[in-house]
Amino acid sequence: MKYILGVLVENHPGVLSKVSGLFSRRGFNIYSLAVGMTEDPGISRITIVVEGDEYIVEQVAKQLNKLIDVIRVSNMDRESLTRELALIKVRATPKTRHEIIEIINIFRAQVVDIAKDHLTAEITGDSEKITALEDMLKGYGISEMVRTGAIAIDRGNKLLNQPE
Amino acid sequence: MRLNGAQILIECLGEQGVDTIFGYPGGAVLPIYDALYDTKDIRHIRTAHEQGAAHGADGYARVTGKAGVVIVTSGPGATNTVTGIATAYMDSVPMVVFTGQVASSLVGRDSFQEVDITGITHPITKHNYIVKDVNQLPTIVKQAFKIAESGRPGPVLVDIPKDVQVAVTDYKPGQVGYGTIKKLEFNEGISGDVDKAIEAINECKKPVIYAGGGINIAGANEKLVEFAEKIKAPVSCSLMGMGAFPGTHPYYMGMVGMHGTRYSNYAFSNCDLLIAIGARFSDRVVSDVRKFAPGASIIHVDIDPAELGKNVTTPIQICGDAGEVLDIFNENVDLRQENGWNAQIEEWKREYPLKYKMNGTLSPQYVIEKLYELTEGQAIITTEVGQNQMWAAQFYKFTGPRAFISSGGLGTMGYGLGASIGASLGRPDKRVVNIAGDGSFRMNSTELATVSKYKIPIIQLVLNNHSLGMVRQWQDLFFDKRYSQTSATQDVDFVKLAAAYGIKGYKIDKNEQVEEALQNALGAEEPVLIECDIHPDDKVYPIVPPGAGIVELID
C-alpha cells in the first residue's frame, strides 16, 4: 500500500539528505520524493510517497518528526489532491506520429517537442493517469521518461502549515 | 566586544555553565585551543585518544545530567569520536561535540584532515550543524545545548571551519536568542491515554512495573517508589534503568530480559498489566516478541513519541516526562492491597535467587558483592561491556539514579575507563569504580595515561578471565564449545601495565584476598588497578537463549 506524507522542513542546506537518509537507515522504501519551496521562503515542502503498512508509515512519520529541521509531518488522506508531471520521449515515425498525438490528446497531455524520430509528451495528473499514458505509448517505444514524483495538497480549508 | 569565533565559542560555553571540556588539540582547532589558553573558568581534560574524550564527556553527562562537552580537530580527530557519539545517542546522553573543520575555501576538495563529519554523524546525533558564518555561532551553540539536554537527551555535533574560528565580529554577551528553529517553540506536555491508564491500573490484579533509563534521566526515582508502594507492584529495571528503583526495596526484582532474574521474567510473563515507564522494549529485554507478556495489557510511558509502538504493540500509550506522568498516576490511582500476586512474586524470589557457581578460587560475582558491601552501595559504578557489565548489574545493588554508568544500547567495549574518568570529574565527592573485563579494558587502556596525568582517584577492577568471556559463553552454550578467537587471548600483566603509567596495581586470585584489596583501594586517594584472576568458565546466568521467550531461561 502506498501512503503520501506531506512534510514541512526548514529550508537549510543538508535537510533533504537528513530526511532521505532516515529512510534508508530505518529500512523504509521511498516510492517517490518531491521537494520545493513554499509560500514562506524559509520553509520547504517535501512530498514523500512511501510503500508499506500502517506500522511503517507511523514509524516514518514519528522518526521524521524527531528531526530538528522537520517542522510538521502529515499522513495525507486519500482524498487529497495529488499531481505528478512526466515528460515522455517516445519513438515516432511519420507513419505513427499521428496516432501517437491522438493518444496524447485523449489524455489531455501535450506535445512539447518534436524531432525526426521522436516526440516528447508532457502530462500532468495523478500517478495512475501517467502510468496509463505510459502503458499506451509503450508499444511505440519509449526512449526516455522522467517523472517528478507526486506532490499533494489537502482539499478544502485544511492546511498543513496551520493544523487545527 | 570584538572577538574572533574561537573566543566567542569559549564565551558561549561559559554562558552555558560548562566547567569541563574533554578534548584533544589539532590543526583545525588551533584557534580554539589558543582561546582556551587564556581561560581560567573551564577545565580542559586532554585524553589520550579522541574516543576517550567522547566517553569521558558521556560519563560526565550521565553522572551530572548536564551536557558533556568535547572539542576535537577535523578528520581523524572527528572520526575517532564517532563510537563515543553513537554510544551516547543509543543511551540518550546529552553531549555537545565541537569538531574543527578545514577552512571553508578548502571544504569539498579532499583537503588534509578533511572529513564530512556532519554526513557521517547524521544517524547518530539528535542534530548537527556546520557553522558557515561566525555571526551564527552564538545562536548555534545555544541551540546545540538546548537540543542536547531537552526532551529525550542526545548528542549534538557542531562542525566549525577554521576560517570561522578566526573571523572577528561583535559579540554581545547575554543577548543571544535561540534563533528561528521552529521545533524549539514546541512545548510537548503530556498526551495520550492517561485516563485509560489510570483505569487499567485500578482494575488490574497482577501489575508489574518495568522501569527504564527515562526514570533516571527525569529524576523521577522517588515518584516511582511512591507509585509502586501505592499500587503494590513489583518493579524490574532494564539495564539503563539500574538505580531507577532502589535495589534494596522489597518490591525490587532486579533486571529483566536476557540476563534478568528468573522472577522478573516470570513476573513479566504472568502479569495482567505491564507498566513500562521510560523504557523502550529493547530486544535484550523482549527476546521473542510473540512470547512477551502474553496475558498482559501494556501501558507505555515515554517522552519520545517514536518509541511508542515501535518494538512492542502497546494498547495504552502516554507521551510525556516520566516524572510528570508519575505525578498524575500518584494523584489519581487507587491504593491497592497486596494480594496473591505479591505472594507469588515472593515465592519465585525465594525459589530462584541469583546464584553462582565457583569454578576457580576467585569468583567475579563475589568480588562485586564485596564491593557493594564495602561501598555501602554508594559508589558510582562504570562498566565495560560483556560479562563484567552483566555481573555488575546483577550483583551490585543500586539505590539511586546516575550511579550505574554503562553502554547499554550500543554495547561499546572500551567505554568504561573513559566514562569513569568523566564520572569522577563530574562527581568528585563519589568513589568511582570501573568494573572491566580484560578484553574490553585492553581496547582503550591507553586512557590510563589520562587517569595518571590528572591523578583521578578511580579504581579499575579488571576481571581477567584470559578470554573474551561473553562471546566465549555463547560459543560454549550455542556453538558446540568451538572457541573461535575468544580463548587464551595473549595475556597482559595488568599490574605492570598500571605501573607503566605510574598507577598502583594489585593482583588477586582468591576470594580471601578480595576484602583487603578492595579496602586498600577504597582507602587510597589515588588511582588503583586491581586485577582479579578469574576462571574462563564463569558465566552470566540466567540467560535467555536466542529466539526464546523470556521465561525459557537456562542457568
Brief write-up:
The complex is a heterodimer of chains A (164) and B (555). Chain A has 4 helices and 9 strands; from the N terminus they run βαββαββαββαββ.
Question: Would you kindly provide a written description of the structure presented here, covering whatever features stand out?
Answer:
The complex is a heterodimer of chains A (164) and B (555). Chain A is built from 4 helices and 9 strands, in the order E-H-E-E-H-E-E-H-E-E-H-E-E. Chain A has 164 residues and is of the alpha+beta class. Chain A folds into 2 domains: 2-76, 2-Layer Sandwich (Alpha-Beta Plaits), CATH 3.30.70.260; 81-151, ACT-like. Chain A, domain 2 (Alpha-Beta Plaits, 2-Layer Sandwich), CATH 3.30.70.1150. In chain A, the strands form 2 sheets. In chain A, strands 5, 6, 7, 8 and 9 form a 5-stranded antiparallel sheet that branches. Helices cover 37% and strands 17% of the residues of chain B. The termini of chain B are far apart. The longest helix of chain B is centred in the N-terminal third of the chain and has 15 residues, at 50-64. Chain B has 3 domains: 2-185, Rossmann fold, CATH 3.40.50.970; 191-351, Rossmann fold (3-Layer(aba) Sandwich), CATH 3.40.50; 364-533, Thiamin diphosphate (ThDP)-binding fold, Pyr/PP domains (Rossmann fold), CATH 3.40.50. The mean pLDDT of chain B is 96. In chain B, the strands form 4 sheets. A 7-stranded mixed sheet of chain B has the order 9-15-14-13-10-11-12, sandwiched between helices. The chains are: A alpha+beta (164), B alpha/beta (555).
